[in-house]
Write a structure and sequence with these properties.
The complex is a heterodimer. By secondary structure, chain A is mostly helical. Chain A is built from 14 helices and no strands. By secondary structure, chain B is α/β, with parallel strands linked by helices. Chain B is built from 9 helices and 9 strands. Chain B has a 6-stranded mixed beta sheet, sandwiched between helices. In chain B, strands 2-1-4 form a 3-stranded antiparallel beta sheet, covered by helices on one side. The longest helix of chain B has 16 residues. Chain B is globular and about 55 Å long. Classes of the chains: A mainly alpha, B alpha/beta. Chains A and B meet through helix 8 and helix 9 of A and strand 5 and helix 3 of B.
Chain lengths: 291, 249
């Protein structure tokens, strides 16, 4: 009975195993990236960039159909272009980065949907917007694992200046010129992970496995190493739980949204019960300490 | 021992500003190696701007800032862009001061750990190593930032209003550190508001009001006449000011 619910689907079906491997790979790097996005107050930036990827991927689709390389390259190009453009607009005009990102992502989303609709059906559009985590082939899995590997290695290499840039950007500027480069590399990793997430979860939900686990983890620990580990763990749990829920609900619950819903439930649970500023802790009166 | 050049910082007809409006106007002079200099002046006199310029965070509109070759510079801005909600401990914040030696990959080993502990103890924060920086008071935060400065082991130390909004005891402790740096022949330049502190602890003073009002021995600079003159010299930005005609010699 329990076996049928929790293990059976993965033992029985190849596509379920592939989906699980895919979300685990996404969670490994997405958790860490999400933590840094959150700590740098760039959560919405991540969201905006996820949308910005769409027109690039859509052009790839227009040219070559559902081709992994074409849509990946298109998405990467569009993501980098928007990240750079938003940064540049913020630097040379009076508009702040968040406002310029909002402008760019709205344009991108509308443009992307239009481009996909030019050639494809509503089903294709649905696929682009919400992904198809149950149809990951070898190439996509290799891409997802590759992105996770590259992201983790880059984060490990940049860890020190990245943390310094978050805590005290002025200080990093005063001792090193690496700040700008570190920031750009980080944005590059964000785009890379969003494009990877796009293949599994679609443009609208790709950012979900980054931000929700990171935000949930913040309610349990204030230590950055633990935050990263916990966020990745939460991502994997959400992925697994979402797949199980989706499988047992038959065809009624699409897998991608189920995964994000599971992550959302984890977030809400953490918000309620978390030991670091969770709601329950605030409501329960506890005597203050002696010192 | 490298022979120290006489001037640590040389300003030549320096104009610094924002959006073409000068905040520091045609400033020339030298800050001697090993000197302890206070920069004082009314609000809007360009004190912070000058420090920012020397630190290299602002490029001159005109003129030149020369920092003696091979000198390491440390800069503590007035409003550090510090994110105090970031989950990091005092220990790690102070450890950032080792960047020059450790860089991206360098190991922070046993010797460095002892240095970090010593710096934290020197600013009176022993026992606070594992506190998150968000839990520090204003004075404790400033102590932590001074510990980081200690580790930076810089030849030239620039402090922008380091004692503003800081309690008397912390001010006294941190001032003692500044004196120690002076004793170690480091060059220290600090923007200060409290004239009494300057008279007591700073041998050299630059009285600034966009231009130099007086620069030299503190006793000779901080006269009533000079202070009055400084107050009169600072005017509001004229948004319709014509381009400066003074010869940039």
């Amino acid at each position: 009975m329990l076996y049928d619910l929790f293990i059976g689907p993965f033992a029985e079906f190849d596509f379920m195993r592939r989906a699980l491997v895919g979300v685990v790979a996404l969670s490994v790097s997405g958790g860490a990236i999400g933590v840094f996005l959150m700590l740098r107050r760039m959560s919405l930036t991540g969201d905006a960039m996820a949308h910005a990827i769409l027109p690039g991927a859509a052009i790839g689709y227009l040219v070559a159909g559902f081709s992994l390389p074409a849509m990946t390259l298109g998405g990467l190009a569009a993501g980098f272009a928007v990240a750079l453009a938003a940064g540049a607009v913020a630097r040379v005009t009076v508009i702040k980065e968040d406002a310029s990102l909002a402008a760019f992502y709205l344009i991108s989303l509308a443009l992307g949907v239009t481009i996909v609709s030019l050639r494809g059906s509503a089903v294709d559009l649905f696929h682009v917007l919400f992904g198809n985590v149950l149809a990951l082939d070898d190439d996509v899995l290799i891409l997802l694992s590759g992105v996770a590997t590259v992201s983790l290695m880059t984060l490990a290499a940049l860890y020190r200046p990245l943390v310094m840039e978050c805590v005290d950007p002025g200080f990093l500027r005063s001792v090193s010129r690496s700040g700008g480069l570190v920031h750009l590399t980080f944005l590059g990793l964000v785009v890379l992970n969003l494009v990877a997430g796009f293949h599994a979860l679609g443009t609208l939900l790709a950012v979900g496995l980054m931000m929700l686990p990171a935000a949930a983890a913040r309610f349990w620990t204030a230590d950055i190493t633990r935050l990263i580990l916990l966020a990745s763990g939460f991502g994997m749990v959400s992925g697994y739980a979402g797949l199980v829920m989706s499988y047992s609900a038959g065809s009624n619950l699409p897998a991608g949204p189920a995964i994000i819903l599971a992550a959302g439930a984890l977030y809400l649970g953490s918000l309620l019960l978390g030991t670091q500023g969770g709601l329950a802790r605030r409501l329960l009166p506890r005597r203050h300490l002696r010192a | 021992m490298v022979a120290a050049p006489l001037s640590a910082i040389r300003l030549t007809d320096l104009t610094l500003g924002y959006d073409r409006h000068p905040a520091v106007h045609h400033l020339s002079g030298e800050i001697a190696t090993g000197s302890l200099t206070a920069i004082v002046g009314p609000n809007g006199a360009g004190k912070s701007t000058l420090l920012k310029g020397i630190a290299g965070a602002l490029s001159p509109l005109d003129g030149d800032i020369a920092v003696a070759r091979g000198r390491r510079l440390a800069y503590l801005p007035q409003q550090a862009e510090l994110d105090r909600s970031f989950p990091i401990h005092v220990y790690d914040l102070v450890a950032m001061g080792l960047w020059n030696r450790a860089g991206i990959f360098g190991r922070i080993g046993g010797g460095a750990a002892a240095k970090i502990e010593a710096a934290i103890a020197a600013v009176g924060l022993a026992g606070f190593e594992r506190r998150p920086i968000g839990a520090l008071s204003g004075g404790q935060m400033q102590r932590a930032l001074f510990a980081r400065l200690l580790l930076q082991d810089a030849d030239i130390i620039l402090l922008d209003e380091p004692f503003t909004a800081i309690d008397a005891r912390t001010t006294a402790d941190l001032l003692a550190l500044v004196q120690r740096w002076h004793g170690e022949s480091r060059t220290v330049v600090a923007v200060l508001h409290d004239i009494e502190t300057v008279r007591r602890a700073f041998p050299q003073t630059l009285l600034l009001a966009r231009e130099t009002v007086a620069w030299g021995e503190t006793g000779e600079v901080l006269t009533v006449a000079n202070l009055l003159k400084a107050r009169r010299m600072v005017e509001a930005f004229d948004s319709h000011a014509a381009p400066c005609e003074r010869d940039a010699a």
